[in-house]
Recover the amino acids of this structure.
């Protein structure tokens, strides 16, 4: 069954084929989004994330390979009526917020009554209903970013594509944005979220893909990706903390990490010292640690 | 059609200030040619005014069309528009429609100003509306040719190439003129300079219709090129 968004061996080169300045932004990129998920799209600057998004929306054409958006080839205009998009560094026309949302909604074929209702609804969702009549040229960058998200939500999209949506937001607005995305996802919207804010991705995404130099280096379930198979955390009691390297004692419990290979030795040591093992779990890393491991120079990912 | 109307209306709104300034210029030059109502202008002054405004309107609207894609890409506002259910063909049609709507407004102001001037000069004004239709044909071909070039060129170069294409036959012998009715642009310019104050003056309608048809051809060519262009890459 086709996914909501499918890339099949997509390559994108910038520059003329005969030019020495030609750059390969995407290289044999294959990815499939499943309906109803929140998908995190990560990569360092210049990894090709925005290129991948722009290809999906038909802003550019792939040098080779192909892809499908909601089952139709990239670039199919009527299909985009079912998609919401927020660009990185959002650029909007300087008009009153409600008129601007009406304009973008109408471009997607929304009728006047639905436009009126949805404009009010999305302005409330992004907490700008009191600013409905104000020209957005007088908005702060964070407010413009929220209007950008509002226009993406106007058509109740099946797929929401967000390129760095929280880059201009303060921490409180970021929490609001996160709640909004979760709410949209609960209502059935699939979300494709490109961001540098790894903690955000870690909190909301079901699956994550990491892109580096145009190549997909890792894709998988967020929880599984964060679990290390190399190290385990052991919690015990009734043993002296000094018996284990970098162990921490808290309320009579001792916590320490060991490499997977020495897990058995550590457990036997606890028992030989007369202690009790309370838990043994794989160490959970942060997404930042995984990201750096996979994208740092010299990584064999 | 609705996206075309919306984007065209937005195009007009975005260009309202230069358009209003040119309206003022048309009225001001009419008043100046008429010596601000104090003296009676000569027939040569009135004809100069008509020819000058016809050329200005064509160049200005061609330049508006030529800069449209570039400006929208540079400001990145094109991304949100084309992320909606809007095809590239509809987008180009909207730019053309916006430019033509601007031209219609200009031409109305121009005809009103020219009417005042001809009345003041006690000249027959029967040829003004046919002349207005001729200007519209000039605007149509100028905007679509400029828009076509702007799909793959910098806007200044696109405007220059439009001018070059239109004026190229002028470098050849004058006797060639009669045989170039269907060449884009140049015959319309020649017709601008053929205006005379005669009650039955009319342009060569073959030239007018040819320009209108050619503008459709250039729009189709523009769509064919624009459809294959990457619009999200930096323009500079």
């Amino acid at each position: 069954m086709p996914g909501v968004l499918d890339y099949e061996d997509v390559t994108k080169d910038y520059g003329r084929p005969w030019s020495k300045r030609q750059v390969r932004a995407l290289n044999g990129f294959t990815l499939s989004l499943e309906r109803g998920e929140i998908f995190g799209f990560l990569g360092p600057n210049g990894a090709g994330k925005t290129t991948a998004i722009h290809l999906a929306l038909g802003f550019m054409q792939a040098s080779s390979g192909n892809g499908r958006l909601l089952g139709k080839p990239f670039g199919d205009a009527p299909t985009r009526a079912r998609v919401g998009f927020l660009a990185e560094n959002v650029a909007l026309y300087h008009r009153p917020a409600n008129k601007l949302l009406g304009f973008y909604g109408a471009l997607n074929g929304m009728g006047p009554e639905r436009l009126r209702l949805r404009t009010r609804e999305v302005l409330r969702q992004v907490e700008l209903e009191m600013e409905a009549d104000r020209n957005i040229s007088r908005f702060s960058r964070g407010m413009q970013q929220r209007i950008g998200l509002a226009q993406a939500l106007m058509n109740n999209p099946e797929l929401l594509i967000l390129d760095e949506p929280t880059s201009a937001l303060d921490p409180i607005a970021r929490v609001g944005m996160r709640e909004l995305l979760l709410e949209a996802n609960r209502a059935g919207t699939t979300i494709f979220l490109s961001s540098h804010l790894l903690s955000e991705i870690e909190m909301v995404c079901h699956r994550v893909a990491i892109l580096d130099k145009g190549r997909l280096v890792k894709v998988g379930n967020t929880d599984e990706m964060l679990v290390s198979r190399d190290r385990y955390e052991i919690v015990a009691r009734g043993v002296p903390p000094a018996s284990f390297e970098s162990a921490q004692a808290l309320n009579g419990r001792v916590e320490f990490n060991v490499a997977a290979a020495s897990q058995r030795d550590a457990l036997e040591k606890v028992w030989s010292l007369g202690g009790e093992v309370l838990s043994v779990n794989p160490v959970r890393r942060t997404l930042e640690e995984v990201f750096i491991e996979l994208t740092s120079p010299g990584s064999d990912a | 059609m609705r996206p075309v109307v919306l984007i065209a209306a937005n195009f007009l709104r975005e260009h309202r200030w230069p358009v209003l300034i040119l309206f003022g210029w048309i009225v001001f030059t009419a008043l100046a040619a008429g010596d601000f109502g104090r003296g009676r202008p000569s027939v040569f002054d009135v004809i100069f005014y008509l020819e000058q405004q016809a050329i200005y309107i064509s160049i200005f609207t061609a330049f508006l069309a030529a800069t449209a894609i570039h400006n929208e890409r540079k400001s990145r506002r094109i991304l949100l528009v084309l992320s909606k259910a809007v095809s590239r063909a509809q987008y180009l049609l909207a730019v053309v429609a916006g430019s033509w709507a601007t031209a219609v407004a200009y031409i109305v102001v121009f005809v009103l100003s020219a009417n005042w001037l001809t009345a003041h000069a006690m000249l027959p004004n029967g040829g003004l509306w046919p002349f207005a239709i001729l200007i519209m044909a000039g605007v149509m071909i100028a905007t679509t040719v400029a828009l076509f070039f702007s799909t793959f060129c910098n806007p200044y170069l696109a405007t220059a190439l439009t001018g070059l294409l239109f004026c190229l036959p002028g470098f050849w012998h004058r006797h060639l003129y009669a045989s170039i009715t269907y060449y884009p642009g140049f015959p319309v310019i020649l017709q601008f300079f053929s205006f005379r104050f005669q009650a039955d003056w009319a342009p060569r309608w073959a030239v007018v219709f040819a320009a209108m048809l050619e503008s459709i051809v250039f729009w189709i060519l523009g769509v064919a090129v624009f459809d294959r262009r990457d619009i999200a890459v930096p323009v500079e």
About this structure: Residues 2-226 of chain B form one domain. Residues 43-75 of chain B form the longest helix (33 residues). Chain B has one domain: 2-226.
